[in-house]
Amino acid sequence: MLRRARVLAFRAVGKMPRWLRRLLVHTVAPSFTVGAMCMITRDDGARLLVRHSYRKGWGVPGGLLKRGEEAAAGARRECMEEVGLEIELDLPPTVVVDPAARRVDVIYTARPLDPRATEVSARSAELLEARWFLPDELPALQHETDKALGLVSKP
């Protein structure tokens, strides 16, 4: 009986106008924010980290995607806006879904597009500083950055 009711419900939804189906899905389904982060490494192994004005610890360039923006484009945009560095992304990215925070992070590993252009500075009001750190000199990291670094560093 329950299966039949479900089938009838799905048929009824299928007959609704598209705008009404979308409204129903967006009302019932949880919404998530989607962001892109860049784990950028120089040829000497140093990683680019940024210190945000509103958080403790060091993170990586990244942020929320704009409506309709592809994750790779958002990662490149955030890196340019925050530290003024053009990057080459490695594919595929690692995707982390955090249901408790209702957040999806698309994590890219990357390197400077021009290996000689490694000067960076905090170019965004949300950043206090941006610096390169060798692997054995990493400072205290933000939770998401620490988790992402562990995920992308696995062989």
Query: What's the tally of helices?
Result: 4
Compute the CA-based radius of gyration. Answer: 20 Å
Helix percentage? 25-40%
Structural class: alpha+beta
Quantity of strands, as a count: 8
Q: In what range is the share of β-strand residues?
A: 25-35%
Q: Could you spell the SSE succession in H and E letters?
A: HHEEEEHEEEEH
Identify the overall geometry. elongated
Biggest sheet layout: 5 strands, mixed
Average of per-residue pLDDT values: 90
Low-confidence stretches: none
What is the CA-CA span between the terminal residues? 50 Å
Structural commentary:
With 155 residues, the protein is α+β, with helices and mostly antiparallel strands. The protein contains four helices and eight strands. The strands form two sheets. Strands 1, 4, 5, 6 and 7 form a five-stranded mixed β-sheet that branches. Strands 3-2-8 form a three-stranded antiparallel β-sheet. The longest helix has 14 residues, at 2-15. It is elongated and about 65 Å long. The model has no long low-confidence stretch (mean pLDDT 90).
Question: What brief labels describe this structure?
Answer:
alpha+beta; single chain; three-stranded antiparallel sheet; elongated; 155 residues; five-stranded mixed sheet
